[in-house]
Design goal:
By secondary structure, the protein is α/β, with parallel strands linked by helices. Helices cover 39% and strands 18% of the residues. Strand 9 and strand 10 form a beta hairpin. Bound molecules: zinc ion.
């Protein structure tokens, strides 16, 4: 899709002569630009409709009305210019602003765009969700409250001065919606200026603002941009002055000319700001998140394991939307526990008033921050909020959430602790959706999906089955007990082994921590079988026959996966020890944890089985080697 670019100029210190010089030049190189004006300018400048009273027209009032009617002046640059040097103690109240708008409505038309003027004397500025102390335009208690009047007269878009957008490499949605103090919801937008400019973008530093590099990035990302400028200001030590001579010198004219030359090649069109905002406003949220996400996870595209890229690139966001829609869930506050790159969080946002995502993997958070930066999520309450946290230690108060969503994460964490945390932060009768892997999934990865990969790669996925098997026979504690009770010494088949091997074997078992990887990689199939038999016998002896069906094939399966044992991948499981907890769960095993955490398991089914309306394909196969693979469930807090 071609990019659209518009110019959104602040009329600060502009006079008619300068305005005409700039716009004549821009038209001559085919860059039609809109511009802005003030309602009041008590210093008597050309760009004010009035000076300080409705009976005192500005010196160029008729000319301004013509420009407004022609659509060139399409932005209201706040209620007026009252910087300390110009205000002469004047500040218009609500009645004056209303009177000026009435005049404008009668004699021309009212622009649909408002931009705050960045001066503390501009108390009529609109503050939005995080107002500064001097923003009073949307404060119904203040004498200069005027937002309701602006909206009544058809002003639709607001630039509220903190939304400067500095980095063109971030794809972004330009508009967002936010609630003001008077309860009105407004559409705000961001303006772009180059990070190379150290203060305000003006007529002297245009050449830094309009670079080929930025244009290329906009084009590549199908990104629209509203350029922020002050054509009428020259700067001297951060003091803005009306230019003494020509507004645009040779260097800046050259930058604009080159800028205009590249547009065709890069498929960029120049439009008026209103047109651009109208287009951005109706952009479909889902498509916009998809576009932005695909761009930010692109760096991973060529890597061997492009897990995060696939979240957006393989299925697209629509998949996650369909699946959440089909689950028929809704409520006030939702948590996406272990949110990855946020694909589920974005899908949840249409069903809950607020969605928070927590994630511990720094590379996923990096993607996520890039995506939400682009969406201006901090400023729009409808976008999810994200933070770095573990699902074992959730940074929210008790009984905060109505719903917790946890897809494919809990088996990488301390499951007991995580479930207790879910229970703590959920309201009474709140529900948790949990999706997790059983043995079949890991066997599929090792035996099918990655069978042509080198062993080390397949071992990554074998480890969870190993952990599951060990844990089913009682965990490492049981292995230790087997040794401590000298069961090995009592076995004749053990003494058949060469002495050195026996000693090594015993040493491993009698050390405080058994190194299972070392054990399994160093010893023969016979040894492994022996270990399995011993453990089984020991369990029978001690009558710890829980889950008999699950561990009866222990030694056979251990032999199968022995070749696959490997260390956890630190880049995926950055918390010390977390990888070694990663394991497979069958529903009957999981239900033990559920009970002890204050939940009831309401229902469980294969992946995507909880989609009640419409059909959505599962992401993962439901069984492999007659073992259940990826399954999901709903828990209810008692
Ligand atoms: Zn300004």
């Amino acid at each position: 899709m071609p990019s659209k670019i518009s110019f959104c100029n602040d009329c600060d210190l502009m006079d008619r002569k300068g305005f005409e010089e700039v716009h004549t030049f821009l038209n001559s190189i085919n860059l039609p630009a809109g511009d802005s004006f003030w309602l009041f300018d008590p210093s008597g400048g050309d760009m004010g409709l009035f000076t300080h009273d409705l009976n005192k027209p500005g010196p160029q009032q008729h000319w301004l009305l013509d420009q407004i009617n022609d659509g060139v002046l399409d932005v209201l640059h706040s209620a007026g210019s009252y910087g300390e040097r110009f205000n002469k103690g004047f500040s218009p109240n609500r009645a004056l602003i209303e009177g000026a708008l009435e005049f404008l409505d009668k004699n021309a038309k009212i622009p649909r765009i408002w931009t705050n003027h960045g001066d503390v004397h501009n108390t009529q500025n609109i503050g939005g969700v995080s107002p500064q102390s001097y923003h009073n335009g949307d404060n119904p208690e203040a004498p200069e409250y005027c937002l309701d009047v602006l909206l009544d007269y058809g002003v639709e878009y607001f630039w509220i001065d903190r939304l400067l957008f500095r980095d063109a490499s971030y794809p972004n949605k330009i508009t967002s919606t936010e609630m003001c103090r008077d309860g009105n919801s407004i559409i705000t937008f961001n303006r772009y200026y180059s990070p190379d400019i150290d203060w305000s973008p003006n007529a002297q530093n245009l050449f830094q603002q309009f670079t080929l590099e930025d244009l290329k990035r906009f084009s590549e990302n199908s990104q629209d941009a509203i350029y922020y400028t002050h054509w009428g200001c020259h700067h001297d030590n951060k003091i803005a002055l009306t230019p003494k001579g020509d507004v645009l010198d040779y260097k800046n004219k050259k930058a604009l000319t080159e800028f205009s030359r590249y547009l065709d090649d890069l498929d960029i069109s120049i439009v008026r700001t209103t047109e651009l905002l109208d287009k951005d406003k109706i952009k479909d949220d889902e498509k916009e998140i998809q576009r932005i996400s695909e761009i930010v996870v692109t760096p991973e595209k060529d890597e061997e394991d492009n897990f995060y890229y696939n979240q957006f690139g393989l299925r697209g966001l629509k998949y996650y939307y369909d699946r959440i829609n089909g689950m028929k869930i809704k409520g006030d506050k939702a948590l996406d526990a272990g949110c990855g790159v946020g694909q589920w969080s974005f899908a949840l946002k249409n069903h809950f008033n607020s969605v928070d995502g927590i994630e511990i993997n720094p590379s996923a958070l990096e993607y996520l921050n890039s995506i939400s930066e682009g969406l201006r999520s901090r400023y729009s309450s409808s976008y999810p909020r994200f933070q770095s946290a573990s699902i074992e230690d959730i940074p929210f108060s008790e009984s905060y959430f109505d719903f917790i969503f946890c897809y494919g994460v809990i088996f990488c964490a301390n499951i007991d602790r995580s479930l207790k945390e879910f229970s703590r932060v959920l309201k009474k009768s709140g529900t948790a959706y949990i999706n997790l892997n059983a043995d079949g999934w890991y066997e599929l990865l090792v035996d099918e999906r990655f069978k042509s990969k080198e062993d080390s790669f397949r071992r990554i996925y074998a480890e969870p089955i190993w952990n599951a098997l060990v844990s089913r026979v009682g965990g490492e504690d049981i292995f230790q007990l087997v040794c401590n009770d000298n069961l090995l010494d009592k076995r004749e088949d053990f003494w058949d082994k060469p002495g050195a091997v026996r000693e090594e074997f015993k040493k491993i078992f009698q050390s405080p921590i058994i190194n299972l990887e070392q054990l399994l990689s160093s010893y023969s199939d016979d040894m492994i079988r022996l270990l399995g038999q011993l453990t089984k016998e020991y369990i029978h002896q001690k009558q710890q026959k829980k889950n008999e069906g699950l561990h009866q094939n222990f030694s056979g399966r251990i032999r199968n996966i022995r070749r696959k044992i490997f260390k956890p991948r630190p880049e995926y499981f950055p918390v010390e020890g977390i990888g070694s907890r990663n394991r497979a769960f069958f529903p009957e095993e999981f239900s033990e944890f559920v009970k002890s955490s204050g939940f009831v398991l309401e229902k469980f089914t294969h992946d995507a089985g909880l989609v009640l309306e419409g059909h959505v394909d599962p992401i993962y196969v439901s069984s492999f080697n007659s073992h259940e693979s990826v399954w999901e469930c709903i828990l209810r807090k008692i």
